């Protein structure tokens, strides 16, 4: 991957702060984004494209090339549940009292929404209205098969247009931040800063040759207070899946404190590197 200059963003939505379940707090990066609209302003009558800031965006949004490093951690389920707004979802448990948290650092090289960096903070969840299946085993099976759904808690990016488009179309909680992502050919390192304070530094190996077939999963958000789901399809080349395999160092930002309450940093359950990922994001559907 060739390192490219990036815009340095300053958060305009404030720092993430801890809340009780269902409580809204001003300047809360974890609460649902409310700039999206059920029915989408600017959506044409066929539902196949949307206009954002005078620019036509076709749906589904296509990612033609990106690289990604991610890690999944076993975290405290009780602490995780306090981060989920509303009452539609619950964190899935694969062991008693243990939920799954995902951290991903993504360099979008060729994307309908632009060329930008992104860091994803997400919990694996299920809809409370759906059958839960066999306790622990069903959730673990869905995770292993790449079918487990996620709720996006925070989605920092370093470009303004993707922040605005992601918030309006899907209700993604995107904020504009400083993301320094680089690789030396063997290791990828990502440092996230918000309002001048370091949130984290994530480091992972990035040598691999494996191909990952297409997988499909849903990710959940809230749009104008209404729960929505978005179908996400992805495939990758130059991929690896390793037990452990990455390191996380937390800073002093309030989000870092949130992660410490989950029990981080720690050795991840597994780490995934994808040198060439392609994907698509469908239009959101109200539950």
Task: Provide structural commentary.
With about 290 residues, this protein is mainly beta. The protein has a single domain, classed as Acetoacetate decarboxylase-like, CATH 2.40.400. Helices cover about 10% and strands about 50% of the residues. The chain has helices at about 75-80, 135-145, 160-170, 255-260; strands at about 50, 55-60, 60-75, 90, 95, 100-110, 115-125, 150-155, 175, 180-185, 185-195, 195-205, 210-225, 225-245, 245-250, 270-280, 285. The strands form three sheets. A seven-stranded mixed beta barrel has the order 3-6-7-8-13-14-16. Strand 5 (about 95) and strand 6 (about 100-110) form a beta hairpin. The longest helix has 11 residues, at about 160-170. It is globular and about 50 Å long. The relative contact order is 0.22.
Mean pLDDT: 83
CATH T-level topology = Acetoacetate decarboxylase-like
> In CATH, what is the homologous superfamily?
Acetoacetate decarboxylase-like
Task: Determine the strand fraction and express it as a percent band.
Answer: over 45%
Question: Architecture, according to CATH?
Answer: Beta Barrel
Spatially, the strands of the biggest sheet line up as 3-6-7-8-13-14-16
Low-confidence stretches: 1-39
* Total DSSP E strands: 17
Shape: globular
* Helical/strand content category: mainly beta
Order of helices and strands: EEEHEEEEHEHEEEEEEEHEE
**Rg (C-alpha, Å):** 18 Å
Q: Distance N terminus to C terminus?
A: 39 Å
The major beta sheet can be summarized as: 7 strands, mixed, barrel
Domain tally: 1
Q: Quickly name the level 1 CATH class.
A: Mainly Beta
Instruction: Please report the number of helical segments.
Output: 4
Helix content: 10-25%
């Amino acid at each position: 991957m060739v390192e490219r200059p990036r815009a340095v963003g300053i958060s305009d939505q404030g720092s993430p702060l801890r809340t009780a379940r269902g409580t809204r707090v001003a300047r809360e990066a974890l609460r649902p984004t409310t700039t999206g609209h059920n029915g989408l302003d600017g959506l044409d009558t066929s539902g196949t494209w949307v206009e954002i800031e005078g620019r036509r965006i076709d749906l589904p949004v296509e990612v033609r090339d990106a690289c990604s490093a991610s890690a999944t951690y076993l975290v405290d389920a009780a602490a995780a549940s306090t981060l989920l707004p509303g009452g539609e979802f619950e964190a899935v448990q694969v062991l008693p009292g243990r939920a799954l948290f995902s951290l991903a650092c993504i360099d979008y090289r060729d994307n309908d929404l632009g060329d930008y960096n992104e860091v994803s903070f997400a919990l694996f969840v299920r809809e409370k209205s759906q059958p839960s299946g066999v306790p622990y085993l069903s959730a673990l099976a869905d995770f292993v098969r790449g079918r487990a759904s996620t709720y996006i808690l925070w989605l920092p990016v370093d470009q303004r247009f993707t922040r605005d488009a992601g918030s309006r179309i899907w209700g993604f909680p995107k904020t504009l931040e400083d993301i320094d992502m680089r690789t030396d050919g063997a290791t990828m390192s990502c440092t996230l800063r918000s309002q001048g304070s370091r949130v984290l530094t994530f480091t992972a190996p990035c040598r691999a040759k494996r191909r990952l077939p297409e997988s499909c999963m849903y990710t959940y958000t809230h749009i104008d207070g209404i729960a929505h789901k978005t179908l996400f399809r992805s495939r990758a080349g130059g991929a690896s899946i390793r037990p452990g395999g990455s390191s996380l160092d937390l800073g002093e930002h309030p989000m870092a404190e949130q992660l410490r309450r989950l029990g981080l940093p720690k050795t991840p359950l597994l780490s995934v590197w994808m040198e060439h990922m392609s994907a698509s994001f469908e239009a959101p559907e109200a539950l």
